[in-house]
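In the current project phase, our protein records have gained a structure token line. A sample record follows, to show the layout:
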Amino acid sequence: MNWTESQRKAIEAKGKTLLVSAGAGSGKTTVLTRRLAERILAGDSIEDFLVVTFTRAAASDLKEKLYNAITDAIAAQPRSRHLFNQLFLLPGAQISTIHAFCYDMIKQNFSVLGLSPNMRIGDETETRMIARECMEELTDELYERDDPDLLLLADNFGSEKSDDLLIDTILTVYNRLRAFYNYHDWLELQEKKLEEQAELVRSGFYNTEIGKGLREHVLFRLNEVIAACDSLILNLAHTAASEENIAPVEAFRDMVLDFIDAAEKDYDALRGAVLAVEEYPKFVKTGMAKEDADYSAKEYGRIKSETDKIISKFCLLTEEQIYQDYLSTLQIVRAFRKVIGEFDRRYTAAKSKKGVLDYSDLEHYLAALLETKDENGNTVPSALCLKLRKRYKEIYIDEYQDINPLQDHIFTLLSRPDNRFMVGDLKQSIYRFRNAYPDIFVNYKESFPDYREDAEGPAARIFLKENFRCSRTVIDFVNLVFSEVTEGNRFAREYAGEELIYAKNSSAPAYPVVVALSVYDGDNRDTAADLKAEAFEREAEYIACEIERLVGREKKEDGSSIRYGDIALLLSAVRGRARVFERALRRRGIPCMTEQDESLFSRPEIMLAVSALKTIDNPTDDVSLCALLRSPIYQFTADELYRIHTKANGYSLYDSIVYAASFDRGRCRRDAGKKYAFSVRKQSEPSTLAGRCRHFLAELDFYRAKAQGMLCYKFLWLFYMRSGLLAAAGAFEYGDKCRENLLLLYQYARDFEHTGFKGLSAFILYLGEIAERGGDLANAKSAGQDGDYVHIMSVHKSKGLEFPVCFVCDCSRKFGTRDSSASLIVSRNFGFGCRIRDAEKLTRRDTYLRRFAAICDTEAAVDEELRKLYVALTRAKERLYVTASVPEGYSDKAYNPVAAHSFADWILMTVANREENFFDVYVIPDDIRERFYKGLEADADEAEKTLDPAVAEKIKKAIAYSYPYPEAVRTPAKLSVSEISFSEFKAKVNEKMILRRPEFLGKVTDFGARKGTANHVFMQFADFDFVEQNGVEAEAMRLLRIKMITEEQYELLSYEHLKAFFDSLLYREMRSAKRLYREKRFSLSVEAASLGLPELKNAKDEKVLIQGVIDCFFENPDKTYTLVDYKTDFLPEEGGERILIERHEKQVKFYCRAVEAMTGKKVARAVLYSFSLDKSVDLAL
């Protein structure tokens, strides 16, 4: 096999701990397998290696690949005893999931841990039930003795109706903590940390860890407000009737600048500045056109609303209140530590009694085996740990981006500094809900140097960027999306330098990525929801039509026809969303398999079966009894149940049935069964209402008697057979699926018998526990015949898979933010943040600790959503479709990537108003179904008929037609000032002189342009007051901290040149000006012919819109203006001024015209400030 250079390094590198950051489709598993095979072929034994995979399937696949590699080697070396021996040892090799490895180590050392040799890994639901029983018993005992810690937790996290919310909260915190190494010590550390931070509040809240983070957040948002004000002021410069319209916005902007200055000092200064404002300046519409006035007032209202949100959330509490919140949170953490500590002891004892271990136990017990205490009480590696370190020559861990802190600690203990091989892709870490911590991978990635064969040091990193899966167009599209979305923001930390490289060896044509948008009118609130739902249906309809077009008509790269099984629909969330797509496919007879799109417990046939079991277990459960009676099994109507209940004078429903069974009140309604599509009742059943009640009670007595002595799964099968439910389920909609679901419930009943619980009541509790945590029982899948079906699945399920054709659907679905709104948030980095009960107001008030934790949690959730999009887009091998339902005006919206609410936001900010040859944007027509069928039904023979001569002549004339105004065709609608300057420059260049770039000059670099951009961005956002007080370097650091410049820009800044500017006479003139404007955008309509461009010289009576951004202009004492344009061009000392003027004179004159149009005042002076020459150059006006 031909390996890439990076793959070869990953396979051959020795004597180092390696982190392999492998992009999608880069063959990371193949590389890991080949590296291990090379070691074995070189003479090492498979027993010398530990290989840990994320799933059992991955472990089996790796063993199979190793088997093939060894057998191939045996074919070449049939006398090699070593290779035959490795083949024999392979089945018992340490190639497994981490939990299987932990369990194996525990079984070998159970006596050291004091465990029974018969301990087994418990079912997740079983262990949850044990945990809940222990927690309920503990809370009852603690309530009885008025335990202050539990009462404190109950006040803050409990409910008046029951303790379920309190118990759920404690168990959630416990499960989250168990991903941490030594979580009891971690809780103690949080207590100490809160005590220390509380004391720091006394010296100023912004001195605390949370305070520093919140200040950065507040400064960032206030600067966003400033940017919004600048935009509005610029707009008003064109639409305002007088200065009176602009003054309130400028005053508001100055007020926000005061807030920023105060926040730079300390929290009290910010709070004082905020409280000093009695009211905001009111916007004045006088003299403005109504449409302009309404728009500006609305924008101003949004700006004020955003400012109010910032103030109310982060600026109003006193530092004494913040201090008390720290102390209250400290008490809550202390209470959690005590209650969780006691619960942990009880839970451990209960599991030991039942002979059960949960998955977290496996990790914690192994960590306990690997560590011990020395004579000084310090934690050191145990003898077993040292033995394993010596035993394993190398340790291989796959999917390292998805491990938790405890697992990382275990691998650190097991490995030496130079023998760990970690493979993963940070961009595919999408298991946060399973306690995955991608920041662990990030820290390794940032701390390890790039691998070099001659470099010293125990660790290095290698990037696998070559993608062997996707087509070139898919690669280009993915790179474009992520370069646009991650540029200059926090996302860049994960994606910078990780662009995919097309490496697929294929000569087949590459199909452009299709971005298909179903557009609806979202302006009318009354109809928007319905129109959005219609657009969603239309999106699904388009996908069904496109699949019907592809299958049997289009070819794959290998020349074979596309089949249904080659196609996948990927959704961010399947439950509640996939049904629309499934229905659209089924209407066209397209077979499909849907991953769990709803809870098994929401299926009618399962709800009926569970209601029957509940009724048999407890006939006084009126809800379940009513459901069973109204079902197709017994077919009581609502009217009949009402008559039965009212005649019994308010007894329970069961007592009413018993009462009614003793009377014969006449014949039942003959149409009772017509509600259902089938009837389970037998002809021999009684037809009177009393007789049917007696029959039901007899059946119930029979079932209750049988339930006492039968295993659950046998009893459930008896119920299926006797009631006829299983046989009749085929008459339901999707009958095959209904039968499969009932059989699936039966299988779960069989599995239940292997737990430590017995009996029908326990089985019902078991099902209830699953339903409460989200219905995690897998639903039976909708499938076509012979396995050839379209796959409908979640992005999570698709990870590790690939399909020739992928539809990334429902991209406009909003991201979930449920965790960030929780009353309690636990963060590994920032500890606990929670709402606190206000005893006086009987409410729970928010705290800065919880709000900051919520900000961090929301950012982490959005980060993971971006990774999910990466995973989804990179599943496609040949064809990729991205679909979304979006409101009209999507292309005009300003998208902020870090504030995105859906996949569509990221996709649209990339494709809107952009044209590339590797993607197409397609707006789905309202009549997609009719258009599609017309296309399919068109007769091919008709297309081949000869055209009517008269029609042919018309076509020829149409093709030969020339527009009589060619200048108008060539005249652009708008131009930027820089385009005009570049056009003039280009006209001076002899095209024959443009030769290829000499090789000795190396690759083309945009270093100069990036350096210039960095200086421009600094000048755009620099706080002049802050520079004067603290210097240019300090201001650059501040801008970096509040994320106004990137780390790259920070490194590229020309500090000496910037200092020279701030020492210049021009700067002093700017600072002394009464009015100073910076970074002002403008639009100016001019005659096209006046631009002096050769291609527009004949464009008479045509207008062109000129757009640009003015760096700076300020008012002179005589009310005229001076314009300043910053230039970062490299210039020679001799003749530099002349070159500068020649390049930019015309551009600056346009700027002058724009300033005069905006201000109504004359521009008396225009200055080019050259950072290269460190001087001002005046232009003649």
Confidence is low (pLDDT under 50) at residues 665-683, 778-786, 939-945, 982-1007. The longest strand covers residues 1103-1115.
